[in-house]
Amino acid sequence: MRFRSPDNILSEMEMLVRRFPDLSSINLEIETIGASVHWAIALCDALAAFNATRKRPIVFGANLAVTTPLLQREAQLLALLEAFKRANLLRLRVGLESGSPRIRKEILNRPPYSNDELVRFSELAREHGIDLSLYIMIGVPTETPKEAIGTSAVARALNPAEIDPAIYYPYPGTKLFEMSARMHLIDPRQIGYTAERSRVYLKLKNFPRWKVFLEYILMHWRVFHGRRNAIAILRTMISRTLACIPDLQIAVIRSVHNLQNRRAS
To answer: What distance in Å separates the CA atoms of residue 221 and residue 233, rounded to the nearest whole number?
Structure first.
């Protein structure tokens, strides 16, 4: 793995804030900021020093792979969370992917972590003022409706600030694509790139396409109902429904935009 030095990263940030004085947030695009805890803490110390020179501190975000080895070293984990807090790195994107341990291990080949460990981590993160955003996947090979509903339940237990659900898309050249083809879940000749991650391309034996899409749409409600404004949740559900039909989505956005312009004039 390659790591940029904190000084190298800070020099780029200084250029950005000079060019964009109103900049208020920066995303650190990295597979996982926890790949080297020592490096992450050094970077956070540099970010904290950078923010100390500003009237309005920058809010940072990053990806973090939450794994059993990381969680078992609690002293190290707490030191990392404290470093995030010092640096104003208050938005972490975490890959739940599936609430089913079977799916994670046998299908997605995810690193080891349990649902209880993720819940514990979410509690620690909130104690440090850090919001979690969850990556979630639905409709993967062999998944059942019960497992999909279980994923929403686990996501709700994590009490995230946001979720980013996606319908599994069989990307050619990947092992999951090959598995899907071997199981006759797809016709490789019919795979397109229209509304990928928002349209159901697999034909699962025990999880019909309409039900996969329904669970995808309902996920936002299952995770946030009773915690967020119901109208706001419904708007998100409608937006996700429209995303599977890009032309219709664009037409709706344009219509709303034109209506707002007419009202403003």
So the answer is: 6
Token code pair at residue 119: 């819940």
- Nearest Cα neighbor of 110 from 91, 96, 92 is 96
Predicted pLDDT at 256: 78
pLDDT, tens digit (0-9, with 9 covering 90-100), for 78-94: 999 999 999 999 999 99
**How buried is 21 (Cβ within 10 angstroms: 0-12 exposed, 13-18 middle, 19+ buried)?**
exposed
Percentage with pLDDT > 90 across the chain: 77
CA distance linking residue 133 with residue 91, whole number of Å: 7
Domain chopping of the chain, boundaries: 1-87, 92-104+138-257
Q: Name residue 222's beta-bridge partners.
A: none
165-180 burial by CB neighbour count: b if 16+ within 10 A, else e?
Answer: bebbbbeeeeebbeeb
- CA–CA gap between residue 264 and residue 47 (Å, rounded): 41
**What average pLDDT does range 250-256 have in this prediction?**
77
| Cα 242 to chain centroid, rounded | 20
- pTM of the model as a whole: 0.87
Q: Judge contact between 174 and 181, C-beta under 8 A.
A: no
Q: Which of 18, 22, 40 is nearest to 31 (CA)?
A: 40
